[in-house]
Design goal:
Layout lengths: L1 E3 L14 H6 L10 E11 L34 E4 L2 E3 L2 E5 L5 E3 L19 H4 L4 E2 L5 E4 L5 E3 L6 E9 L5 E3 L16 E4 L2 H7 L4 E4 L23 E4 L1
Parallel strand pairs: 8-14, 11-12
Antiparallel strand pairs: 1-2, 2-10, 3-4, 5-8, 5-10, 6-7, 6-9, 12-13
C-alpha cells in the first residue's frame, strides 16, 4: 500500500497503530514525505508452515519479462548504506514470532537470481542458514539481500510488517492494496495477474500505465495493534 513516509494522515485509520513502527525505521532525510509502501499481514499460522512466501530469495525480480521489457529495468526499492547508521532506500521488516525469518548478510549480483528473485540454486554458496530474526527486531536490507521465511515451530498468530522506502518500477495489483489517500507515482507501472505464475512462464503478465484502473486484492490487513518494535536495527548491506 502506498503511503507518504512520516505522514500518519496518509495511513488509513485501521493501520495508524503501525505509525509508531514506521517511525522506528531510520529512513534518510531525503525520503521524508516521499512515497513508500507498507505491508501488514496478520494471520494464524500452523506449525511447520510459513506465513509468507517460502524459499530463499531477494526482492529484486529475476527471470521474468513484463511487456517485453528487459529484466534489468525491474527494480524494487534498491537500497544502499553510506554508513552503518545511514541507509538510503531499501526495505525494513519486522515480525512478532521468533525464528520465523532468516536474513543473509550478503548482496547478490544481478543475473544470479532466478524467477522472482529465487536463490535456492545458490543456497550452498551462501551457507546453510542465515541470521534468524527475533520478535520485535527491525531489519533493513536491500532488494538484493537474500532472505527466507521459516516454518513456525508452534501454531499461533503472526504479525508481519514491511516498509519499502526506495523506489519501485512495478506494482503488482493482485498482490497489493490500493490506498484511497495516496496515489501511485506516475512512473510506476501497474501489473495485473499472479506474479508467481509470471515467474514460471517468464512474462505472461498484463501491464498498464499508472492512471488506468487496476483491480487489487488485500495484502495489508486491518489492525488495531502493532508488534512492539525492537531497539536495534540490523543492516544487511
Amino acid at each position: 500500500m502506498p503511503i507518504r513516509m512520516g505522514d500518519v494522515t496518509s495511513l488509513p485509520e485501521n493501520l495508524r497503530a503501525y505509525q509508531k513502527l514506521i517511525d522506528k525505521c531510520p529512513i534518510h532525510a531525503s525520503e521524508k514525505r516521499q512515497i513508500g509502501y507498507v505491508t501488514v499481514h496478520e494471520s494464524e499460522v500452523k506449525q511447520g508452515q510459513t506465513q509468507t512466501r517460502g524459499g530463499l530469495h531477494t526482492e529484486r525480480m529475476g527471470g521474468i519479462n513484463l511487456s517485453g521489457e528487459n529484466r534489468s529495468q525491474l527494480f524494487w526499492c534498491i537500497g544502499f548504506a553510506t554508513s552503518p547508521d545511514c541507509c538510503v532506500g531499501g526495505l525494513y521488516i519486522a515480525n512478532s514470532v521468533d525464528n520465523s525469518c532468516e536474513v543473509f548478510d550478503f548482496v547478490v549480483a544481478d543475473g544470479v537470481m532466478g524467477p522472482l528473485g529465487d536463490l535456492e540454486h545458490v543456497r550452498d554458496l551462501l551457507g546453510k542458514s542465515g541470521t534468524p530474526m527475533q520478535s520485535g527486531s527491525l531489519v533493513w536490507m536491500t532488494d538484493r539481500t537474500p532472505h527466507a521465511a521459516l516454518p513456525q515451530l508452534e501454531s499461533g498468530r503472526r504479525q508481519f510488517f514491511r516498509l519499502v522506502a526506495g523506489p519501485i518500477s512495478h506494482w503488482f495489483a493482485d498482490h497489493s492494496t490500493e490506498n484511497p489517500l495516496v496515489s501511485l507515482p506516475d512512473d510506476v507501472e501497474v501489473v495485473k495477474g499472479d506474479k508467481f505464475m509470471m515467474g514460471q512462464t517468464r512474462g505472461e503478465g498484463e501491464s498498464e500505465k499508472k492512471g488506468e484502473k487496476a483491480e487489487s486484492s488485500s495484502s495489508s490487513s486491518s489492525s488495531s495493534s502493532a508488534p512492539a518494535p525492537g531497539s536495534t536495527v540490523r543492516a544487511a548491506p
